[in-house]
Amino acid sequence: MNPTITAFENSPDEGEGMARDMPVRWAFEEVGQSYDVRLVSFAGMKQPAHVALHPFGQIPTYEAGGLTLFESGAIVLHIAGLRPGLLPADAGARARAISWMFAALSTVEPPIVDREVAWFTERDKSWYDERAAAIEERIRSRLGDLSRRLGDAEWLDGDFSAGDLLMISVLRRIEDVPLLGEYPNLAAYVARGKARPAFRRAFEAQYAVFLAAKG
Ligand code: GTB
Predict the structure, then answer these.
(1) Residues contacting residue 21 through CB under 8 Å, at least 6 positions apart
(2) How far is the CA of 24 from the centre of ligand 1 (A)?
(3) What is the pLDDT of residue 67?
């Protein structure tokens, strides 16, 4: 039986694939594992049946054979362990790929999310411009380090891995603002990730949900 994940019934991103079911879908596609999706509404996410799966009442969740998981990073790590394609067989290389997964979510992503939160919650405040500039400097600091480490390599550490999948997913959040373009090798890295057939399939699957919801 296929694993089942949850995703927004009506994603606020209008089909741009910015919600966190997208990296999970991408991981399934990379390893060639088919999956089912249960769509949930914002109200449904807060109901006891969903909170039993996800303590914070969010998407995505993962269910398979009695195992329930939440947190997109943990789900991607689990999927990467099911079949080859996202984690190297060599133990050291595998551990390094997992380091990149954590780096994406706990080192690079936080200031990127702060920028979005500040825009949504503080943009009418007198201090907003100063705060936004400070957050952008924190983002640049991370992007500068990442750009130097990537250099002219194709992926972060050898073959494409779950570390790249999560890092590219994080960087996509700033691809439409000038920040990412200041680092041409990172912009090219994101474009390479998005050109992968597995990414395209995942993107199209979530886009189909948007089109169906639009009617
Ligand atoms: N750390 C968790 C994970 O990685 O799984 C975070 C999960 C999370 O933030 N889920 C969001 C959610 O369920 C959806 S993805 N929100 C509903 C709620 O909390 O009540 C975050 C997201 C939502 C929308 C956009 N967008 O519109 O662009 C982008 C990202």
Answers:
(1) 5, 6, 7, 8, 37, 59, 60, 72, 206
(2) 13
(3) 98
CATH number of 91-196: 1.20.1050.10
Distance 2 CA to ligand 1 centre (A): 23
pLDDT higher than 90, residue 214:
no
96, amino acid identity: R
Work out the angle between the directed axes of helices 128-150 and 184-194 (0-180°, nearest 10). 80
Provide the residue ranges of all domains of the chain, joining segments of one domain with +. Answer: 4-85+198-214, 91-196
Please give the CATH topology (third level) of the domain spanning 4-85+198-214.
Glutaredoxin (3.40.30)
DSSP H stretches of helix in 83-161: 91-102, 109-122, 128-150
For the entire predicted model, the pTM comes to: 0.97
**Ligand 1, pocket-test mutation among 58, 75, 167, most atoms within 8 A of CB:** 58
DSSP letter (8 states) at residue 209: H
Q: Is the peptide bond before 48 cis (omega within 30 degrees of 0)?
A: no
Decide if 78 contacts 87 (C-beta within 8 A).
no
Q: How far is the CA of 8 from the centre of ligand 1 (A)?
A: 9
Max alpha carbon distance in the chain (Å)?
54
Average pLDDT, the chain: 97
